[in-house]
Specification:
- The chain is mainly α and 326 residues long.
- 42% of the residues lie in helices and 6% in strands.
Amino acid sequence: MAETMTELFTAFTGFREELKASLDKQAKELKANGESSEKTGKRVEEVGEKLVEVKAELDRRAAEIQARIDEVEKLAARPRMGVAAHNGKSIGQQFAESDQIKAMRASAATESGAFSVNGSFFPRAAITSDAGSAGTLVEPQRLPDVVTAPRSRPLLRDLLQVSPTTSGTIEFIEQTGFTNNAAPVAEGAVKPESNLTFAKRTAPVEVIAHWAEITRQIIADAPRLQATLDGEMRAGLELKEDEQFIRGSGSSPNLQGIATHPRVQKYFWATGNNAVLANATIKAKTGDTKLDAIRRAMLTVTVAKYFATGLVLNPIDFADIELLKG
């Protein structure tokens, strides 16, 4: 059993969270199978017993602390040491009868001389908060939560449609061309022929992974740490996945990034340089800002008969755009 109230409270919080998780798991099993597994039921009982045990110990400690507080309040209500040495006179009475007040009255002064209380009225305490005295009895307060690193910005994955797979390779058909010769024709005339071209593409399923070494004992003793590790490790995967979505080389085990894809149309831009061509249709113009470049890049998508459904920016570029003047 933990020794301090902080440790007891941390243990109580951990068992409570674990019991909630076990009950949720049991409810899912009952809904799916009509019954709960023996392992889950046993874990619910074990955690419930531990929770009751820790709660009882917390109540017992709280009762002890309350008893000590009551005793301190009784002691505080007793007459203080030193009063008898001054014949029961308060500080105010001592001040009113002091030589300083008598001298002030005799000279008709507006201020009296300095008056100090006799040290015997407030005896120096023998027990203090120094380390050599009772300071070691003061325990630091330990907060149950962990202060984690800040979470990242929204990710590119949030803009994509995601589907699960059980295969190691994905095959799909990509439209590679569309020759649109549609035109008005006279009755009986030969209609113009259009053409669509397709190609079969293959993409391997790649793995992004990492791990951290931790003992079973600390996981068992600190349930909050388990949740923290789970969150931080998942966040690490999401950040690396985001990098791969944008600039992955496409060479296994790397994903094919959007910015490095050989068949993605690009818009090239340089500040104040109208000689840099985006493509055969869209050109940069002298004085274009980064915001202008984004709009012209969206125009290249529109000219290709698509719609720009998302925008991903480097945070430095985004800050420059937000701070544009004029």
